[in-house]
């Protein structure tokens, strides 16, 4: 039985592991991929204090090493459910069940699907949600990026190192992304913008994407844009399927917590991107993680009183 089981080894989960283990608690971190979460799909980080510029995987490795300094264990596992038995929480994975006195959910989010014809068919064959993973396959090709937020702009700029041209297609005529990212993108000669357009279909041959059908949101006009690849960045969906029966999520699937990162179930906490929050950043996940790491210590101490 662990004092705390942390689900997810992104920046938030690894920070909780550091804080809880440094308080003397036994800690298990369960992760189904490489430690780092979204950091592993991030080329450069320039808004995490202490580092002017650091690659996502380098920061992930530093956080991983740091998280194990005080004895936290990391295991591979795909969590399918959490059972709340009061003083004991069971974390059920595909092939193993772990028991903990408390649980911190740090499972993060995934890039939202756009749900148009061709998206699923061409996933991995021209349709992608990860520029860092797939960008290099598109040397000297024309790429289309869908979205107007930080991810679309940042990843669109990243893709210009490979692509001959990157067309960013946005459904409005104003970007949602941070001003500093907008300014850089507007100056980038390889980037073009198409405003007031939504994608309605992705087409291609048996092998790969060849074009995308766009509809003008003002006139309703439809046009075919030739494209060798389509990168979709239209927001995030929480990874909360495994807690759907616990009643801790809101209507959109994000987990609701109080300022202590506590959910409405005693002993179950949530942090980082998976939480209903106003900002999803590495720094905010780390802040959440430190609060929850300390709070599980306070909670377990209060049970001993
Ligand atoms: P986001 O901020 O939610 O932006 C999603 C974009 O996609 C918006 O521009 C939205 O348009 C558009 N969109 C949504 N649904 C659409 C649809 N069905 N069809 C076409 N377009 C659609 O998502 P994100 O860019 O993935 O960012 C997620 C979070 O991570 C944000 O909090 C962001 O600040 C953070 N992030 C931060 C950094 C950084 O700090 N460097 C980098 C990446 C991400 P509208 O604008 O019209 O709503």
Give the key terms.
5-stranded parallel beta sheet; 7-stranded mixed beta sheet; FAD/NAD(P)-binding domain; alpha/beta; 305 residues; binds NADP nicotinamide-adenine-dinucleotide phosphate
List the helices and strands and how they pair.
Elements: E1 2-7, H1 11-22, E2 27-31, E3 44-45, E4 54-55, H2 56-67, E5 73-76, E6 79-85, E7 88-93, E8 97-105, E9 109-111, E10 127-128, H3 131-134, E11 142-146, H4 150-159, E12 165-169, H5 179-187, E13 191-194, E14 197-204, E15 209-216, E16 222-226, E17 229-232, E18 236-238, E19 268-270, H6 282-304
Parallel strand pairs: 1-2, 1-8, 2-5, 8-19, 10-17, 11-12, 11-17, 12-13
Antiparallel strand pairs: 3-4, 6-7, 7-8, 9-18, 14-15, 15-16
Helix pairs in contact: 1-2, 1-6, 4-5
Bound molecules: NADP nicotinamide-adenine-dinucleotide phosphate.
Report what the structure shows:
By secondary structure, this protein is α/β, with parallel strands linked by helices. The protein folds into two domains: 2-111 and 236-304, FAD/NAD(P)-binding domain, CATH 3.50.50.60; 127-232, FAD/NAD(P)-binding domain (3-Layer(bba) Sandwich). It has six helices and 19 strands. It has helices at 11-22, 56-67, 131-134, 150-159, 179-187, 282-304; strands spanning 2-7, 27-31, 44-45, 54-55, 73-76, 79-85, 88-93, 97-105, 109-111, 127-128, 142-146, 165-169, 191-194, 197-204, 209-216, 222-226, 229-232, 236-238, 268-270. The strands form five sheets. Strands 1, 2, 5, 6, 7, 8 and 19 form a seven-stranded mixed β-sheet that branches. Strand 7 (88-93) and strand 8 (97-105) form a beta hairpin. Helix 1 (11-22) runs parallel beside helix 2, helix 1 (11-22) runs parallel beside helix 6 and helix 4 (150-159) runs parallel beside helix 5 (179-187). The longest helix is centred in the last third of the chain and has 23 residues, at 282-304. The chain is elongated. The model has no long low-confidence stretch (mean pLDDT 96). NADP nicotinamide-adenine-dinucleotide phosphate (NAP) binds next to helix 4. Its EC number is 1.8.1.9. InterPro entries: FAD/NAD-bd_sf, FAD/NAD-binding_dom, Ferredoxin-NADP_redctase_2, Pyr_nucl-diS_OxRdtase_2_AS, Thioredox_Rdtase. This is Thioredoxin reductase. Belongs to the class-II pyridine nucleotide-disulfide oxidoreductase family.
